[in-house]
User: Fold these one by one.
Assistant:
Number 1:
Amino acid sequence: MINTTEDIKKFIDDKVYKKIFVLCGKKSFVTSGAEIFFKKMFKTKETKLFYKVSEIPTLEELIKIIRDIKTFKPDLILAVGGGAVIDYAKIANVVDVRDDLANLIINYAYPFKKKYTKLAVIPTTAGSGAEVTSNAVIYVNGIKYSFESELLIPDNFFLIPEFLISAPNKIKASAGFDAIAQALESLVSKKSNNQSVEYATKSLRLSVNNYISFLHYPNLKNATEMIIASNLAGKAISISKTTAPHATSYPFTSLFNISHGHAVSLFFESFFRFNFDNLIRSETSFNLKKRFELIFNLLNVKNISDFNSKITLMKRKAKLEDNLNILKININQDAEKIIKGINLLRLGNNPIKISESDIYKIITKK
């Protein structure tokens, strides 16, 4: 599952790839060491680099990327970066610029036909698992929407632990929590099945034991464990999709510029408490109580209170602030805007039916 830089070199050296469109984040491309590595390799290829500017994937920047790709006509799109970079590349490879694009996105009605060219991705964060998922996100007018199609799955991906180590702790903390959250949400999602449970379980055994050490004492071993955990969590949610914590996170990113994994963490314990307290209303085809027992076992806790305490401690050690006053979020003033920005598609996967008033109570309780 893990690759070496030699694997990438062999792949890119292939004579099939004469023109390569490289999509990356300027900071991550440099800090990961990818810039130095790729500059040597690209000497024999015609390349075009596109540095993404927006913190979140926006329709406006996506359109620029698609137009640049169509103008350049590459044999290969290479995405090197975090979840936003990879999502941009996945979407740009299957979507055309058209007058009704925004409406098609909003109505989840884009008519996918084919890939434009080959897509290879190299994650520089251990978090989203975007290199293996069949969905990608885009923000239109500050609201998050999803594209979902098997065509979005990249043709190739490379997991290079070395590219993760030097990322800033803020990015590693957010991305790492995202991987943990994805695996936990996958286990309770209505769409969960035996295969997603296997992926999520394997992911959590790695991430829970390596997350904090990867932040404070990063090395090749814990970076390797975290990138595998992230990849497995991506495989899990590609099947099961995510639930309420993810659904509610998006407006906190678009309205308050809270990074994705950090936004997911804000009310994570409260949503899991809600699901556990309402087991009797479970809409899952599996026994939700037993699934929680599996979760408690994986985190080495006895009950939901211990589980929440463990998640809270993990967040504290990772310096993921969840005090809304410190984050300068006036929840009572902005609650309506936040609830309008929630992703209803993801909310539908929650094991317990959850209403807007339930969410209002959860987010205003802090």
Number 2:
Amino acid sequence: MEALCVKHFGTQPIHIEKLPLSGSSREYYKVVIDDNTTIIGTHGYEVRENKAFISFANSLSDAQLPVPKVLEVADDYKWYLQTYIEGDTLFDILEKHRLSDGSPDNSTVALYKNVIKQLPKFQVLGAQHIDFSKCYPRERFDYQSIMWDLNYFKYYFLKTTHTVFDEQLLENDFVALCEYLCSAPSDYFMYRDFQSRNIIIGSDGEPYFVDFQGGRYGALQYDIASLLYDGKAAITPEIRIELLDYYIAELKKYVDIDEQKFREMFAAFAYVRIMQACGSYGYRGFLENKPHFLNSIPPAMRNLAYLLDNHPLPIKLPYLENYLRSISSNEELLNYSAAKNALTVTVMSFSYRKGIPYDPTGNGGGFVFDCRAIHNPGRYEKYTKFTGKDAEVIDFFAKEPEMAEFVQLTQRIVEISVKKYLKRGFKSLSVLFGCTGGQHRSVFCAERMAEFLRKNYPQVIVNLSHREQDR
């Protein structure tokens, strides 16, 4: 990646920070070139997928749509540089501004409408610029693509949650549903993963769109269903209706549609999208051991129940409908919590004068790091009233290279165990930092460790405490 930076900017980057992993295997890096330039470096092993993103990004930019610009690409197409979009995801903003009943506030609804206003442009205008021969893994969301999604649901969700079903009866209804959905007009650009985590609200308040490498020809209904039935977003039914009405009004500015037929097929695509998402929750959560995906199961079940009660499947699919009713009312799925199976890391600061903390898990393992070799601000009168959480002490350690090295080394050591524990399904790990008084050095190190784990391993539950300070 450094070579690409030199090739494009003529200089080495001054800082590279690996960003937390998302649902895919791609790796993202925030790269600071200079005080005025920050970019994103991307590494992906699937060359065809990378080529799809690069091609689509260039085409959508040509269509004046708000997407990252690709700056430089490695000869093997496994690395590329793109512009950095500073801001929060739509999902993060939604989480921060929920009302007491869980619904988004008026400002967030306005953001959703601004996002939705852009969607027909991607689907209709973007399609005029896209080279669909670059699509990966398939050029069109057709019968085979839909069946892949339904089987993804069957094998990675139903099988992994040990729900019982008649495979032949389910397959019969899958075939009928695919044939029905394939009757929808599909000569449009389907973003494929149009959901709140892939939309960034920039510092200018405008939406920007990422992660469209799975795009292909497809029906208009799929993307809006992806956004409005995004499980963790948990949009209330009333606002979902309002936003769908808004989308249809915007869409009519670009294409003529049979609104009644459109709404009917929208519901059918919403079912497919929820089933595909559940397959992802099972695959990423159970098989790839990323428990935070499993927290999306209860809202997905509630979305299914809402659809079944308010928008029944538009064609007769008796076995599928009854089966979806069964799982959407399943108490275990409705109350599923990844916390039951997650790795919990206990991070604590302490004073050696009062002994090493007792391990309540009974494992007798974990790490105990001795911070007493680090320069101690507690030796100076001006710091005696502060702790390692206060700005004055943080500034003190910013000038101590040995502290930065100590923190980085401890993070690397702990990370080895965290990765292995996640892979093997272990449930607890302790990381303790001790100093003389349990006030400055150990507190600072524990804070940095908790921050590191929360940022890079969101699936891990981090319990942070400061034994002497908490007393």
